Amino acid sequence: MRWTYIASAGALVVALSACSSTPDQGPGGMAAQNGGAASADGARSAGLAGGGGLSQAQLYEGQPAERERVVYFAFDQYSVSGQYQGMIEANADFLKDNGNREVVIEGHTDERGSREYNIALGEKRANAVRDVLLSYGVSSSQIDTVSYGEERPAVEGSGEAAWSKNRRAVIEYGM
């Protein structure tokens, strides 16, 4: 019985150490090594794994002139408003002309609702934007989606002013 306990404790230590991160890499793993872009709040983003250490200028080179990549949603909604069709179409045209470029569509929510509900809603928002890009002829191999739910707010705070900026899907370009 004692050996079982020791073996279980040892397996737990190994599993937990495998989950730890190296401090010099920072959030996102390779961001510090690949020169990931830092946002105003100090967060770093390595972009897509295929980015291969590109600078921010190289990453966005030739991106649609509008540079608009954010779709905002009404409370508890995930359908894309008609006001974003032109912006999404411009991104779709760019992706069709640049078949080697990829995007990750990040789905986000405000802080209201359970974590599980917000992850699901963020996924629905990201998928809704993906579906519009696909309807414009973008290859599905160029698009990935991820949901962050309420975990990465654009604006801190509570109240409609902050919540309306956090209910969004963001088109992030990679290589």
- As for the CATH topology of the largest domain, it is 60s Ribosomal Protein L30, Chain: A
Order of helices and strands: HHEEHEHEHEHE
Binned, the helix content reads 25-40%
Q: What structural category arises from helix and sheet content?
A: alpha+beta
What is the CATH level 1 assignment of the largest domain? Alpha Beta
Number of domains: 2
Number of helices, where a helix is a run of at least 4 consecutive DSSP H or I residues: 6
Average pLDDT, rounded to a whole number, is 76
Reported CATH architecture of the largest domain: 2-Layer Sandwich
Which homologous superfamily in CATH is the superfamily of the largest domain? OmpA-like domain
How far apart lie the N and C ends?
53 Å
| Radius of gyration, in angstroms, nearest whole number | 19 Å
Q: What would you call the shape?
A: elongated
Overview of the structural elements:
This protein has 175 residues and is an alpha+beta fold. It folds into two domains: 1-46, no CATH class; 47-174, 2-Layer Sandwich (60s Ribosomal Protein L30, Chain: A), CATH 3.30.1330.60. It is 38% helix and 16% strand. It has six helices and six strands. The chain has helices spanning 2-19, 31-34, 56-59, 85-97, 115-135, 160-166; strands spanning 37-38, 44-45, 70-72, 102-108, 143-149, 168-174. Strands 3-6-4-5 form a four-stranded mixed β-sheet. Strands 1-2 form a two-stranded antiparallel sheet. A hairpin with a 5-residue loop joins strand 1 and strand 2. Helix 4 packs across helix 5. The longest helix has 21 residues, at 115-135. The termini are far apart. The model is unreliable at 1-7 and 12-51 (pLDDT under 50).
